[in-house]
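Example noted here:
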Amino acid sequence: MNFNRRVSLMKKFSHVVAGAALCLFSFSGHAALLGIQPGFPHTDYDSQGTTVFGAMDLAVNAGLFEHKFTVGDAQPYLIFGTLTIKAKINAACAVASNEANPEITMVGDIYDPVSFDLILSGTLLTGEIVSAGLQSASANLTAMDFRFTSAGGLLVSGGYWPAGKDIGVVLTVENSSFVDCVQAWSGGAKGAVGPIDPLPPTGNVGTGTQGYWKNHLSAWPLSSITVGGITYTADQANNLMSRPVKGDKTQSLFVQLVAAMLNVANGTNSTCIDTTIAAGNAFLTTYPLGSGLKSSSASWQNTGEDIHETLDAYNNGKLCAPHRAD
């Protein structure tokens, strides 16, 4: 990128920062909100946006403000583009229907903040709406949040978006004329977009054994998992599950604990296993995976073995949740 282009980008970014200081409104109670908390990659949109509602049609249009791929990014990436949300909202302020076209579209350019190299350019994210929440905070301030399924875009196809995650959006409407979702209203628009955990399946979901989860990585309901105080990606945890035990009981416990945590994340009844899962994580914090704990050790015989056996029974459908049909 030439020098003049870099200067132009810096001036543009400085103008955006000066005119769009982002300050999301925080609520202690989420009476009608979904409680969305967008993760990373995380994109903020500025206070110059607009929210317009009338005849069941909600339209949000805003400029993209800053972007971080991970929580560890030292400074935001430069991002220039637009966020568009179009949704049908009924008189109860809930989603009325799902349109054929994406209800959220994020289009723009993302530049490296140091080198000013262009990282991504085009349609960054699209999704189909699942639900919306709304809360009137004051006479002229309204909050909304949204859940979308992740349909596509460069953040998804490029591997930046965590596998299996939905899209979460928070919206603060300043200078809002909101009264209810029968009358037309409008206001500003600022907020954030990022991945959120998908909703758990409904119904009586069955448990899978450690063997099932080892061999069905594509079915994992989590893109990352924290075991014994250490966070692993799904790929890393799956690979660790396949390591030979070789007399190390921390390996045996790790495998059953991961399987139980995946079953719970997948929507199985967890009332009989929550305490045991917590105990298993505490045990592997004290005796980390790979520490070579022997079956003859007092800590295993007095504590670890009971945890392992309870997790194994749960994963095999012998406790409060049935075994999966397949």
User: Anything to note?
Assistant: Residues 3-22+30-196 form one domain. The first strand starts at residue 42 and ends at 54. Residues 245 and 255 are 10 Å apart (CA to CA). The chain has two domains: 3-22+30-196, 210-315.
